[in-house]
Structure formats: C-alpha cells, structure tokens
Design goal:
The complex is a heterodimer. Chain A is mainly alpha-helical. Chain A is about 65% helix and about 0% strand. By secondary structure, chain B is an alpha+beta fold. The two termini of chain B are about 55 Å apart. The longest helix of chain B is centred in the N-terminal third of the chain and has 31 residues, at about 15-45. In chain B, the strands form three sheets. Chain B has a five-stranded mixed β-sheet with strand order 3-2-1-5-8, with helices on one face. Classes of the chains: A mainly alpha, B alpha+beta. Chains A and B meet through helix 3, helix 11, helix 12, helix 13 and helix 15 of A and helix 1, helix 2, strand 7 and strand 9 of B. The structure holds protoporphyrin IX containing FE and copper (II) ion (CU) (2 copies).
C-alpha cells in the first residue's frame, strides 16, 4: 500500500493537528474562527432559550411565569447575550476571522497571537456574564439605565458589566487586527477598489469597534464606581445626572447597532452578485455607503432620547441626522435590486437567505423612519414597535445574513456540502416564522403596548399569541441548520474548491484551505465581481 | 381584535396624520422593493431564456437620482415630525396644572385643590392640561396611548407634559420606562370627564386645604419664611410675583421662573443666584421630599396669582 505524503504546506488546516491543545493554542485564523463559531452557537441557543421563555410568558395577559422578577431577568439575559455575545461577534469576528485573510490572499491576520488572545478575552467576558446571569441574574435590561442599575437594581450588575467590559477588549483587539491586516496584507494587485465589499464593510465595522467600544468601557466603569463606591455620577440623589448615562450609553450603542448590521450588508453584497452572476451594481456607492454609515452612526445617538428630557434643539438635530444615516442604507437596497436586474439568478440557500435579508432589512429600516420622526416617536418609543424595528434589522437582517454567510462559506470552512433542499426549506421557514413573530409586534406597539411588560391588558392577547406562535416556527427554523450542518460535517458530500463559481480569492484554494491558505500567493488583476468576463465560468 | 387605536386628545390628531403619512410612504417603498425583487427573480431566474440585452454601464445617473429622491422624502418626513413635536412643547395659556410624582411602582397625582389620587388621573374634557412630573427614585415614563403622549419622568428634575383631552372615557396610563420588578404593574387609569362631572368629582374628593395652603404651612415649617418674608436680618428676594416672570441672575443672564426653575432654586440654590443677592440660601436637596416640594412650588405659584389679582 503506497501512501502519498503531502508537503507540509499542503495539509488542510483541519487535519493539521487534532489534539485539543492544537485547537486551544492555535494561532491559525481559521481555527480561531471555529472556536468562535462554537462559542457563539452556544450563546445563540442560550439567548434563544431565554427568548422562548419570554414568548411563553406572554401567551396570557397575566403572564405564564409567576414572578415578574424572573421575567425581568430573562429579558435582560436575552438582550445581553444576544447583543454582546452573539450579534457583535457573529459575522464580523467569526465569519470575518475565517475569510478576511483568505479574501486578501494573506496567510493569516496581521497579529495571529492577538487574535487568539481576543478569543480568550471574549470567553473570559462570556463566563463572567454567564456566572452573573445564572447565579441570580440581573434585572436592568440590556440598556442598564441609571439610577435603576446603579442604586436600585438587585442582582449581579457589577459582574455582568465586568463581563461586557472584558469582552469589549476582545472586539477592540479584533478591530485593530482587521484594520492593520486590510491595510498591510493585501495580495499583489488587490487595490482598494478591487476589495470585496465584505472587506470594506468589515473595515467600517472595525473603525466602530475601535472608536466606540472604549466609550462603552468608560461608561461601564463609571457605572461600577457608582454602584460600588456610591460616587455620584448618574444618580441625582448623589449629585449625578441621570441623562449622562443615556448619552454615553447610546454614543456607544448606536454605532454598535451598526456593528450589528454593516457586516450583514457586506455579506449580502457578496452573495447577490455571485448568485445573480452579475457585477455588483454601483460598487463604489456601496462601498462608500458603508463608510459613511460608520461615520454618521456616531452622530445620531440622541434619537434614543427623544422623550427623555434632552433639549428640544438636540432632538430636532438628532432627528435630522438619523434621516441622513438612513440614506446610505436605502442606497444599498437599490443597488442590490440593480444587481438582480438582468442577472441569471440561482436560488441556492445562501441566496434565499440573502433575498430574505433584503426584505426584512427594508421593513426594519423603513420603520426606523417612523422612529426618527419626532412626533411619531413620542407615541412609539419604548413600545413593542421599537422591539419589532430592531428585531427586523438585527434578527431578520443580521441573523439571516449570518446564516447566509454560514451556508455560503460552509463548503470552504468544512470541506463538505450541506444538504441543499433542506437548507432552502429552512431559509424559507425562517422568513415566514420571523414575520409571524415580529410583524404583530409593530401593531402591538402602535396600539400602545409598552415593552418589558411581564403582564399586559387583555386586549393585547391575540397579537401576543400570534407572535408566540411565530416564535415556535422560528425556533424550529433555527434548530434545523444546527442538525443538518452538523450532519454534513460527517456525511456531507466533499466540497469542490469553488462550488458557487465565485471569483473571490478564498475560492482559489482547496476546501478546506491549507493551514497557510495558499501555496503561492495569488495575484489579482480585476475587481471581485467581474462575472461578465467569465461567461464560460457559469456552473 | 382591534387594529386601530382610538384618539382621545385633540393634541394627538397631528400625530395620527403623521403616522398615516408614514404608513403611506412605507407601503409605496415596500411595494417598489418587493415588486422589483419579485419581478426580477422571476424574469431573470437562471434558466429563463429571456434576452438580457446589453448591461447598463451608466450606474452613476441612477445612483444620483435615487440618492436625491430618498433625501427629499426623508427631509420632508423630518420637517413634518419636528414641527408637531416642537408644538407639543409650547406652553398653552391658563392650562390646568396637575403634579405627578412617580415612585417604584405607583403614580401619585396631586391636584391644585389638594385632591390626591394614586394610579388614576381625572381630567376635564376640552381643557388644556399641564402635568408637572418628577420621580422619587428611578426613571419612569408617563404614557397615555390614546393621547399620543409620552415623557420620561426623571428623579431630581421636573418634566412637563401637555395635552387636551377631547373624548370622555377611561383610558390606560402606562409606565413605559423599565423601572424594576413591578414595572408592568405601574399602570393606571386616565379618566376624562365632562366639565360638570369633573367639578363634582373635585368637590367630592376635596380634602380640605388646597396644595398652596398646605405649601404655606410648609413654607414656615421649613424655615423659608424666616428669610423670604423679610423683617429679619438677612436679605432675600420676595417670592410674590415671582412665578412666570423673568429673573435676572448674577451671571448676567435671565431665566423664566417656571416650575423647574423654582424647584432648582430650592434644591440647588447655588446654581442660579438671583442678581444682587448673596448666595446664602442653603440647599434643601435630600431634605424636602417630592410631595412637600410640589406644595411649596404650588404655594409660590399662588403668590404670583394673588399679586396679579
Ligand atoms: C435605517 C435607519 C435607521 C433609523 C432611522 C433608525 C432609527 C431608530 C430610532 C429613532 C430608534 C429609537 C426608537 C426609540 O427608542 O423610540 C431606534 C431604535 C433602535 N434601533 Fe434603529 N434605526 C435605523 C436602523 C437601525 C439599524 C440598522 C439597527 C441595527 C442593526 C437598529 C437598531 C436599533 C435598536 C437596537 C434600537 C433600540 C434599542 C433599545 O432601545 O433597546 N436600527 N432606531
Ligand atoms: Cu440608534
Ligand atoms: Cu416603569
């Protein structure tokens, strides 16, 4: 029996060491991406279980769960886990880690060890948060408004805040790593305007990571000071200012909501051209739309405070700026439609997710216009309308984008094909379940149902039951990929190097890639979506 | 299942128009996006034999036109929303003033006549009402859906909320800012009554002393009178005629003496010093509880009315 011995440079990253140690101490960006993927999947289903209980509680007006205390802890836990331990790291950090060096034709990120350290920081923060959430919980909501959180809340506010604080350093480190990698490690010929849009959107996201996260860190630090040492910062009883916290928090958190969508916009801009076999319409506009979103996002935080008692002038100004930030988002939607025009559209699962994304993102974005209109926000603020708005974008949009990305790059990541038909079914189910869950919440909000209510007046019941029914479908749709993707790792067909006929560099190396990504560093001679020059390439 | 929300305040009519306008814009945009998307994915599905012709090269013109189109529409919405909002902040002459004090987890209402209620607010129909609101602990939010009004209620500060109810009935009052364990129990009823019924309600709940009268007693008990009623050795401004008039401050600026100013003068006297007076007034922060404070403010308010006759 003869055996072919591959040269070291041509071993797949998955077979390059199988011990636990070789995974936990790896500096390979692809393996670190897998570590992230496992962690955020766990967080996703944890946060999801909390959501399931929330929807369960709201089936009846008086609340299925006996105690309001428990309910409050559940939605706080849901928000904290989903925002900081799933959505923020999902596409940028997890998918980004895997594909950024590959897309750039690089061997790894600029600082591989820092990259590993980021994962450890993330996990340290995650465990802190989990400890706090399970050893008694926190009842402040993910927004931690003071003085409730500093001097009135029960539970482990300080510990959970510590966890978010620590994981913040992980995102800052990843942001720096991406920025430097994109600047320094592009393959020969890969000019800025030949970069895939996904890279541009991660670049914009990284800017926000680096500029906004420190503000969150400072805010949380001040919150801890006030809680522990009763230094008056936010509580008027101690001489503080209750609105200061909101200003600081939203100065971070509004840009952070764009952390939770820009990478999704990038994924969709990546997938639509591939499955429409057509160049991305208005490449430069899409790219600069991402960058301008990242910049304007820093100047709209006050739109979360239209009824909080901030000055009239501030409200009017923030309303105007909010409309400005919506313009680049609208531009992107039109450009995707322009890309579909005259394409040769295929409906593989990633594309179905991406099309679903366009629909849900548009519906979420449009309702942003309601909330940015001052007088309308007075009525809709802090009702279920706001809940529906941001779930449409963050769950309908970003989670769909994450699944789109996962399916699209799955063959590259694992070297296996997922079962196509069931994946398409799951994508459709997700779209339907999502709408059934969240559309009724727009109406609930307009009818006046406030958010974060453990019990509610009986006239809201029908819509709440509809929403909970939708949530069951949605849960099933999220569980499906967990099973069939896992199954495909063991039983899936072997993936070719380029199953979708994409033109990106990551597809020019085998699936799964070598540890060092490329045997020879590729040279780039054209833009990322020049499908018109590759007619024959059609698969 | 009802899908529309009744309106019970004339001040909310404009908000409803705006919401309707927004729904119109959304339907138009959604029809465009979903319509085009559906049309393209059917017409240009990969196995469709249709001739795709030449591809447009001039994307620039499209980009500019839809950017400008969205900007124009968005700017219109911005102006529309802002105009209504700014108007909601304009004071209306001789509004009925009612004090609202929120605490975990109840609404305490203090009427000028001394009537008090908890988790209920009675107001007359077709009368402008002005709520002066504060909180004793965390941030709450006063939300009456049928009036289309909502305002955060902050500790350490007065916020004013205005509306004019125009339909009798009993409606929901919600706290819509998460405020701790029993947040969802911090609800109540707003009862809008015809003028006659309201007058009856006031008399049958009249507890005796008006807010201002009770404030007068407190004014002596807290030692304000010693300085402010003159005669003593210290020089302090007279408070008669203060409410609603401009006050020159020592830093050269002028402020209007409204509820918030009077409150701040008592709680944080050092922050705004009346011109030509010494900053000798002690701070009463953490000394006077919110319910006494509204009485003092009501008393100072009444002094101005007495003076004007
Ligand atoms: C298209 C432009 C958008 C506009 C004009 C807009 C506008 C607004 C406004 C005015 C609010 C405050 C509502 C309120 O509390 O009363 C809000 C809330 C929110 N938005 Fe958006 N939004 C937009 C896009 C997005 C995107 C892209 C995301 C996330 C990916 C997002 C996530 C959120 C979140 C998380 C909240 C609520 C946070 C909370 O109170 O817990 N929005 N949005
Ligand atoms: Cu925002
Ligand atoms: Cu509340």
């Amino acid at each position: 029996m003869s055996q072919i011995v591959l040269p070291q440079s041509q071993i797949s990253y998955l077979s390059d060491g199988v011990s636990l140690r070789s995974w936990l101490l790896t500096t390979d960006h692809k393996r670190i991406a897998i570590l992230y993927m496992i962690s955020i999947t766990a967080f996703f289903f944890l946060g999801g279980s909390a959501a399931a209980l929330i929807r369960y509680n709201l089936i009846v007006p008086e609340g299925m769960i006996q105690s309001a205390e428990t309910y409050n802890r559940l939605f706080t836990m849901h928000g904290i886990i989903m925002v900081w331990f799933f959505l923020v790291p999902a596409v940028p950090v997890t998918i980004g880690n895997f594909v950024v060096p590959l897309m750039l034709g690089a061997r790894d990120l600029a600082f591989p060890r820092l990259n590993l350290a980021s994962w450890y920081l993330f996990m340290a923060g995650g465990f802190c948060a989990l400890y706090a959430l399970f050893s008694g919980g926190v009842d402040t909501g993910w927004t931690f408004y003071t003085p409730l959180s500093s001097n009135y809340a029960q539970g482990h506010v300080v510990v959970v805040v510590m966890g978010i604080f620590i994981s913040g350093f992980s995102t800052i480190a990843t942001g720096i790593n991406f920025i430097i990698t994109i600047h320094r490690l592009r393959a020969p010929g890969l000019t800025w305007y030949r970069l895939p849009v996904f890279i541009w959107s991660l670049y914009s996201t990284s800017i926000i990571f680096v500029l906004a996260t420190p503000v969150l860190a400072i805010t949380l630090l001040l919150l801890m000071f006030e809680t522990l040492f009763h230094v008056g910062v936010f509580d008027p009883k101690l001489g503080g200012d209750p609105l200061l916290f909101q200003h600081l928090f939203w100065f971070y958190s509004h840009p952070a909501v764009y952390i939770m969508i820009l990478p999704g916009l990038g994924v969709v801009s990546e997938i639509i051209p591939v499955f429409a076999r057509k160049e991305l319409f208005g490449y430069k506009f899409v790219v600069w739309a991402s960058v301008s979103i990242a910049i304007i996002a820093f100047f709209v935080w006050g739109h979360h405070m239209f009824v909080s008692g901030q000055s009239l002038f501030a409200s009017v100004l923030f309303s105007m700026l909010s409309y400005f930030v919506a313009v680049p988002s609208a531009i992107k939607v039109f450009n995707w439609l322009g890309t579909l025009h005259k394409g040769r559209i295929r409906f593989d699962a990633p594309m179905i997710y991406a099309l679903g994304f366009i629909g849900l993102f548009t519906m979420g974005g449009i309702t942003g216009l309601y909330l940015a209109a001052l007088a309308a926000d007075v009525h809709l603020h802090d009702t279920y309308f706001v809940i529906a708005h941001f779930h449409y974008i963050m769950v309908g949009g970003m989670v769909s984008a994450y699944f789109a990305a996962l399916h699209y790059w799955w063959p590259k990541i694992t070297g296996k094909m997922y079962p196509e038909m069931i994946a398409r079914a799951a994508a459709l189910l997700m779209f339907l379940g999502f709408n059934l869950t969240f559309f009724p919440q727009y109406i609930l909000g307009y009818l006046g149902m406030p958010r974060r209510y453990h019990a509610y007046p009986p006239e809201f019941q029908v819509l709440n039951v509809l929403s909970s029914a939708g949530a069951t479908i949605l849960a099933a749709a999220y569980l499906l990929p967990l099973f069939y993707l896992t199954y495909s790792i063991f039983r899936g067909a072997r993936a070719p190097a380029n199953p979708w006929g994409s033109l990106g560099l990551e597809w020019q190396t085998p699936s799964p890639p070598f540890t060092k990504n490329f045997v020879v560093t590729p040279t780039v001679t054209e833009g990322p979506y020049a499908f018109s020059k590759h007619e024959t390439f059609d698969v | 299942m009802k899908l529309t929300l009744p309106l019970a305040a004339s001040t909310g009519a404009e908000t409803d128009d705006l919401l309707l306008g927004l729904v119109g814009v959304s339907i138009a945009v959604l029809a465009l996006v979903f319509g085009l998307m559906g049309f393209y994915i059917i017409r240009y599905r990969h196995n469709s034999p249709i001739d795709r012709g030449a591809l447009e090269e001039k994307s620039f013109r499209f980009e500019i036109s839809w950017t400008i189109a969205t900007l124009v529409v968005f700017f219109g919405l911005f102006i529309w929303g802002s105009v209504i909002y700014v108007r909601q902040f304009q004071p209306t002459g001789n509004a009925l003033k009612i004090y609202v004090i929120a605490k975990q987890w109840m609404w305490k209402i203090e009427h000028a006549g001394g009537q008090r209620e908890i988790n209920a607010l009675h107001v007359p129909i077709d009368t402008p009402v002005e709520l002066v609101m504060t909180s004793e602990d965390v941030i709450h939010d006063f939300f009456v859906p049928v009036f289309r009004v909502k305002r955060d209620v902050l500790p350490g500060q007065y916020e004013t909320l205005r509306f004019r109810a125009d339909r009798a009935g009993t409606y929901h009052l919600f706290c819509s800012q998460f405020c701790g364990t029993d947040h969802s129990n911090m609800i109540g009823d707003v009862v809008v009554m015809p003028a006659k019924a309201y007058a009856d309600w006031l008399t049958s709940n009249g507890a005796g002393d008006t807010l201002a009268d009770q404030g007068k007693i407190l004014f002596i008990r807290y030692g304000c009178a010693g300085c402010h009623l003159g005669g003593g050795t210290v020089r302090a401004p007279s408070l008669a005629g203060l409410y609603g008039s401009p006050v020159p401050l020592s830093d050269g600026s002028t402020v209007l003496a409204d509820d918030r100013y009077i409150r701040d003068s008592i709680m944080y006297p050092k922050q705004q010093i009346v011109a030509s007076y010494e900053p000798i007034m002690p701070s009463f922060a953490n000394v006077i509880p919110e319910n006494d404070l509204v009485r003092l403010v009501a008393y100072i308010h009444s002094l101005a009315e007495e003076k004007r006759g």
